[in-house]
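Hi R.,

Quick one: here's the Helix-turn-helix transcriptional regulator sequence you asked about.
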Amino acid sequence: MSKADYITNQEIMLLLAKRIKEYRLAARMSQKEMAEKSGVSLATISHFEQGVNQNMPLNNFISLLRIIGMEQRISDLLPELPMPPMALKQLNKFILKRVRRNNNDTKS
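And here's the predicted structure, written out as tokens:
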């Protein structure tokens, strides 16, 4: 198992806050600018980045992701489930294994 398997919820939130801050700074954006663009209060952003606020509502977090252009990565967190084996088995029943031709098909 990797180190990521052992981290706590609090550590995950701190890591996310650190990453948000890194992306914000890479975009040369102040907390105030991020607040204005995202609609999330300056205090909330400041407290989140400092690790004070670890209960940020999901909609606020998504707003911050949008501002740094990372909202499309949300689907990476929970990818679509692969087809369950029983559903695949049912689907295979309908896939033709071979094509049968009658006499009319061979006369061309």
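The chain is about 55% helix and 0% strand.

Cheers,
M.
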